[in-house]
Design a protein that fits this description.
heterodimer, A: Rossmann fold, 5-stranded antiparallel β-sheet, 8 helices, 18 strands, globular, B: mainly alpha, MetI-like fold, two-stranded antiparallel ribbon, 13 helices
Chain lengths: 315, 274
């Protein structure tokens, strides 16, 4: 295994009683990367995370962490840590007690600078003032940062994050995205981030693996995956996609021009900085386009649309 | 509100008649003089309470506290793994719970007699061990403190298991995964996560076991023989053989006071009583 790969899955599968949750997934996670597993609910992304953490045992395949096979090890012997979707903070311990929890165990090599490390990590997540609070006294965002601090303080080879933003309200979510990304850059820990939210994955990740039905659809940078989706599922799942004569064109690639394909506007939605226009082509296909609010045609009007052939997605 | 009061009335009347009235009678008795053939007579006196300071009774109180304490700790030690097992046994947990409650279908008295048949010199244990040639003389299994503690643990174990099960069942499984994820071995997770989060259940179970064990007289009478006198037996004696009702009343009030003191101490630390 090349040294720049910290975690590798080799043909990993997981069968539950009635269904195959993960089918033959092979993945390489580069060291220090912000790597996202993206897919709809039930696509197997959380099961992959749980197999890496050690809560589930793969039915087949191998998991390698830092050149060591780990799929047979119990969770407490793996140098990975998890930020749970519900955060799973210990309610009987203070913020500091939660952060110190893992430092007492063998998984982590004991050092005299433990106290300093706890304080440093609490500062990194801006919770030093709340060290003696209990989890129930904290806001959702603060709880999420405790869950992060508790894991980061152990300096895991990979930090596993299971939809850590889904419990936050939408306003906070966008702000936390940036914070999380900054934190990852600062501490340099490899993040494996599980989400069903394509916007989250696109905005935060160095690399994204898109999953569907237990299998891997495509792995690449956010730009690659958005601009050159390799399957119809990926094309549809990331952003909106128009299908015109079997060719994919993103709404933002379509312009309204004096000449081109004829379409009738059936709906217009004002979204602030732009308008979302819904149209029907003569073939009966419904497509979407975006236009500046000042250049927005009223419903019922006949318009002409064109696009650059470079923006076409052929699958 | 009025409707609620109407539904509360029957239990309020019942509680008054069966709890408060007898308690008032006991208080009155404890301040009177013993009659020659049982019962109580005037004049009023506090002598029954001053007699409580006799070291003989102090020793019996201490023994009772000790035996009830040992029985409670044993119930906890035996009941906790059992409750954990039941809480973690998925769809079969209802079966296991009903097995825990099954002994209640028979009278406690009869079950205690059954232990006499098991433990006595010619009982099942001794005769099996003798016929196997493991022992020659029967082991002294009955009529000692050990037999009393065994009987109490047997009788009150369900009262420990049920509240423990109730708290364990509500425990978020993510917390146990988080503990393992942060490096805790299974036993460390039990000590650092499961036990502290079960504190309310442990407290409830300990109270439910300790208080009745403290006042027991049946188990100590049948399994302890004449050597094991606990407060419960002492009280019972005053009302029967000794025919000293006022002193029996004073003793039972002292017992109640101790039990309530301990309850209060347990409550001070936690949020709620049960």
């Amino acid at each position: 295994m090349p040294s720049d790969t910290v975690l590798e899955l080799r043909r990993v599968s997981k069968d539950f009683a009635t269904q195959r949750a993960v089918a033959d997934v092979s993945l390489k996670i580069p060291r220090g990367a912000f790597f996202s597993l993206l897919g709809p609910s039930g696509c197997g992304k959380t099961t992959i995370l749980r197999m890496i953490a050690g809560f589930e045992t793969p039915t087949g395949g191998e998991i390698w962490l830092n050149g060591e096979r780990i799929e047979h090890l119990p969770p407490y012997q793996r140098n990975v840590n998890t930020v749970f979707q519900s955060y799973a903070l210990f309610p009987h311990l203070t913020v500091q007690g939660n952060v110190e929890f893992g430092l007492r165990h063998k998984k982590h090599k004991k050092g005299s600078d433990d106290i300093n490390r706890v304080l440093q990590v609490l500062q990194q997540v801006r919770l030093e003032a709340k060290a003696s609070r209990r989890p129930f006294e904290l806001s959702g965002g603060e709880r999420q940062r405790v869950a992060l601090a508790r894991a980061i303080v152990l300096q895991p080879d990979v930090l596993l994050l299971d939809e850590p933003l889904s419990a936050l309200d939408p306003q906070l979510r966008k702000q936390v995205r940036t914070e999380l990304r900054d934190l990852q850059r600062r501490v340099g820990v490899t993040f494996l981030f599980v989400t069903h939210d394509q916007e989250e994955a696109l905005s935060m990740s160095d690399q994204i693996a898109v999953m569907n039905g237990g299998a891997l659809e495509q792995v690449g940078t956010p730009q690659e995956i958005y601009a050159r989706p390799r399957t119809r599922f990926v094309a549809d799942f990331l952003g909106a996609m128009n299908w015109i004569d079997g060719i994919g064109v993103r709404p933002e690639a379509i312009s309204l021009t004096p000449q081109g394909r004829k379409a009738v506007v059936i709906g217009v939605a004002f979204l602030g900085s732009f308008c979302q226009i819904e149209m029907t082509l003569e073939t009966g296909e419904t497509i979407h386009a975006q236009a500046a609010p000042s250049a927005c045609p009223p419903p019922g009007q006949t318009v002409y649309v064109t696009w650059n052939t470079d923006d076409e997605i052929h699958l | 509100m009025k409707l609620r009061n109407a539904f509360l009335a029957p239990s309020a009347v019942l509680m008054t008649l069966t709890m408060m009235a007898p308690l008032a009678i006991i208080v009155v008795y404890s301040l009177l003089t013993r009659g020659a053939y049982g019962g109580v007579e005037l004049p009023w006196t506090v002598e029954n309470f001053t007699r409580l300071w006799d070291p003989v009774y102090g020793a019996i109180f201490l023994r009772s506290l000790g035996i009830a304490g040992v029985a409670t700790v044993l119930c906890l030690v035996l009941g906790f793994p059992l409750a954990m097992f039941i809480a973690g046994s998925g769809p079969r947990k209802n079966l296991y719970l009903s097995l825990v409650i099954l002994p209640f279908w028979t009278s406690f008295l009869i079950r205690t007699y059954a232990w006499m048949f098991i433990l006595r010199d010619t009982g099942i244990v001794n005769s099996v061990l003798q016929s196997l040639g493991i022992i020659r003389e029967p082991l002294p299994l009955l009529y000692n403190d050990g037999a009393v503690i065994l009987g109490l643990v047997y009788g009150f174990l369900p009262f420990m298991v049920l509240p423990l099960y109730a708290t364990l069942e509500r425990l978020d499984p993510n917390l146990l995964e988080a503990s393992a994820d942060l490096g805790a071995r299974p036993w460390e997770t039990v000590v650092r996560v499961t036990l502290p989060l079960c504190a309310p259940g442990i407290r409830a179970g300990a109270i439910l076991v300790f208080v009745p064990c403290l006042g027991t007289y049946l188990t100590s009478d049948l399994l302890g023989g004449s050597k094991t006198v606990l407060i419960g037996n002492l009280v019972q004696n005053q009302f029967t053989a000794s025919r000293d009702w006022p002193f029996g009343a004073a003793l039972s009030l002292a017992l109640m006071a101790i039990a309530m003191l301990l309850l209060f101490a347990a409550r001070r630390k936690g949020e709620e009583l049960l």
